[in-house]
Amino acid sequence: MFEDKYDRIIYFDTETTGLSYKTNCITELAYAVVEKNKPIQYFDDYIKINENQSYEAKAEEITGITREFLRLHGKNATEVMSKFHKAMFESPKTLMCAYNAAFDISFITNEFARANLHYNYQVDFLDPCTAYHDIAPSPHKLTNAIQFFNIENVQNSHNALDDVKALLAVTEKMQQQYGNLNKYINLMGYYGTFDQIECPWIMYVPFSIKNKIPLYDAYNYYVSSQNVARSIDEATAERPICTTKTTSV
Known about the structure:
Number of strands: 7
Strand order of the largest sheet: 3-2-1-4-5
CATH architecture: 2-Layer Sandwich
Oligomer: single chain
Number of domains: 1
Order of helices and strands: EEEHHHEHEHHHEEHH
CATH superfamily: Ribonuclease H-like superfamily/Ribonuclease H
Radius of gyration: 18 Å
Strand content: 15-25%
Distance between the termini: 34 Å
């Protein structure tokens, strides 16, 4: 998959203490490194949180990750993020893949900043959730995609490692049945229900635009339509963006 451009794909997922990266943090980070002619490598780390860190009751209920569990089994955040950063930027021919990626990118980027880590270069991202919006009617949760593609032996359990395995299976099925997903690289749909940090090289489009056009054609729509109240640039300017190593945080 994507062999013509990438040597490796990293499928990743986070569990967090809530929806906003501004007031919440990552509790679990899992990822799978898929490289040519090599077995898949899986990584899964829990992260300690401060005693005064807010933890939304709904998030704890959904994930089952308690403060006590993190106290006993969590690792230092800088240690976990440094390991992930090293994997992410080991090769410029790496594609990062996450489901509803705008959410995970915001938390990852914020945790990088806390650990004094930066984007070494403009890494490419793929969000299968964005592609799935063009394939099937609502709802568009990962569990719906699993059912749509009739995938067995994976689940959307809100355990980050389980969700990574499900993401990998869904993405491969999507590629097999619907063809090239390259047109969705660095195209990110979003719901607007949570704060997000945006990467300047990624095009962000509201999922609501799907009522008018396929999401992959969003760029042409925005540059040609006279009916859009604000341009993508104006909308993006209102939200913080992630920075590369050559710029300040």
